[in-house]
Amino acid sequence: MFPFPQGFVWGTATAAYQIEGAVAEDGRTPSIWDVFSAKPGNVRNGDTGAIACDHYHRVDEDLDLLADLGVDAYRFSVAWPRVIDDAGQVNRRGLDFYRRLVDGLHRRGVEPFLTLYHWDLPQSLEDRGGWTARDTALRYVDYAQVVHEALGDQVRHVTTLNEPWVSAWCGYGLGIHAPGHADPGMALAATHHLLLAHGLTAGRLREKDPSTRVGITLNLSPCEPATDTEADRAAARRVDGQLNRLYLDPLRRGSYPQDVLDLYREHTDYAFVRDGDLAAINAPLDFLGINYYRPNSVADRPESSDPLRADVRIPPGVPVTAMDWPVQPDALTDLLHRVSADYGPLPLYITENGAAYEDYADPDGRVQDPQRVDFLRGHLRAAHRAIEEGVDLRGYFLWSLLDNFEWSEGFAKRFGIVHVDYPTQRRTLKSSAHWYRDVIARGGPDV
Ligand code: FCB
After folding, report:
1. Ligand 1: centre distance to CA 73 (Å)
2. pLDDT band with cut points at 50, 70 and 90 for residue 447
3. Helices 92-107 and 55-69 meet at what angle, rounded to 10?
4. Which helix (H) or strand (E) holds 313?
5. Is 230 a known active-site residue?
6. Is residue 398 one of the residues assigned to a domain?
7. How far apart are the two ends of the chain, measured CA to CA in Å?
8. Which residues line ligand 1 (CB under 6 A)?
9. CATH label of the domain that carries residue 404
10. CA 73/CA 107 separation, integer angstroms
11. Ligand 1 center to 293 CA (angstroms)
């Protein structure tokens, strides 16, 4: 038995664009993901989030799933383009949806953990520069205040951003996510404005309502050298810098890591960093959300034209998920220790952890996913070990409640513990959902 502490928060997570659908209803305006996914070649099989899990119309049914699982909390995101229209005006009908959602959670005894931004920037703001423009950070602060005024009395935990690294680097640096730019200088400007949006908002919300717990969620991956050579060790440090320290350092220490800034001098002069910005970004945090999926085994790639000059490999013999991500739960324990030691003390939550596998319904309509159960069990044990060794980990949100729109992979990759048959929108609990329900009821996995 691996008993978690009393009060440990058991949850599941989703994000608006990945599940809601109803992209043109009740005054919602287009987001960068509507525009990006509509362009052929950007998303596998031409999938878009136009319908997704139709959660917008099935919210009660989906909340019943949460109640059935017995979760303590649910992490969801608000879609900015539902709440603010292209003229910058508040859209009450959009806010009403989230009011109903939050009420529905409370009625079922489930605590809402609200994420303000999970990648669906209004396209109208992208047309004015998106996250490369400082003004977007200021617009974000306005948007955050609107949501807080509408829902703040019902929502204690607010996360400003989900994975700013992905927004900045996949969206502006690599071109593989919306809005599809591939320029490292833009990715760095986006990074800074995302962090500024976070910091200004955290400061503002704390001023207005000290009872709100404000956090941010980062995707963190331990980076290990593929071999013990000096070259691979240096490569691992570069990847760690760009992926982890570029976000953790300004948030927790008020400075950007110099080695990372130096790597990109050819691509930007950093004129977007203004006096006072880093102090704002360094605003006190009530908690840090960590999304953990995999570590990186890094090899030097001297011939690469990319400033990182690195290859991320799968260590030999390590199993992988349907995303080709290596399954290495022990790295989660190390990561939690490192974050606490280098950037704590700070309450931590695992705001995402989970895996995609090739799930299907058998002739009896059952969905058996023993590999996911193994994955989750391993990671819960790793989290449990960290707690026993003194890490202040407060909760775990499984990604994801439902199979959903997995960004550039479309619907091909299934992360849910509840299977979604997209043509009929039928929901079926996978065996992992039954297992997770038992884990929650017992307060930890039994083996
Ligand atoms: C994370 C995202 C989440 C989901 C998982 C698999 O990077 O935050 O929306 O796509 O990966």
Report:
1. 18
2. confident
3. 20
4. strand 310-313
5. no
6. yes
7. 5
8. 15, 18, 162-163, 166, 219, 291, 352, 399, 406-407, 415
9. 3.20.20.80
10. 12
11. 9
Say how many Å lie between the CA of residue 222 and the centre of ligand 1.
17
Q: Is residue 2 part of a domain?
A: no
pLDDT at 125: 98
Q: Residues 20, 111, 352, 406: which is the catalytic one?
A: 352
Q: Which residues, other chains included, contact 379 with Cβ-Cβ below 8 Å and sequence gap of 6+?
A: 292, 329, 332, 353
Locate 329 and state its tokens: 């739960």
Q: For the whole model, what pTM was predicted?
A: 0.99
Q: Is 281 within the bounds of a domain? A: yes
DSSP H helical ranges for 221-314 = 230-240, 246-253, 258-263, 277-281
CA nearest neighbour of 355 among 335, 375, 333: 375
pLDDT tens string 387-420: 999 999 999 999 999 999 999 999 999 999 999 9
For 249, the domain range is 9-442
Cβ–Cβ < 8 Å for 82, 94: yes
Q: How sure is the predictor about 1, in pLDDT bands with cuts at 50, 70 and 90? A: confident
Average pLDDT, the chain: 98
Count of domains forming the chain: 1
Residue with tokens 């297992």: 435
250-286 pLDDT, tens digit per residue, is 999 999 999 999 999 999 999 999 999 999 999 999 9
1 belongs to a structural domain: no
**Catalytic site residue 163?**
yes
**Annotated catalytic residue within 163, 224, 266, 406:** 163
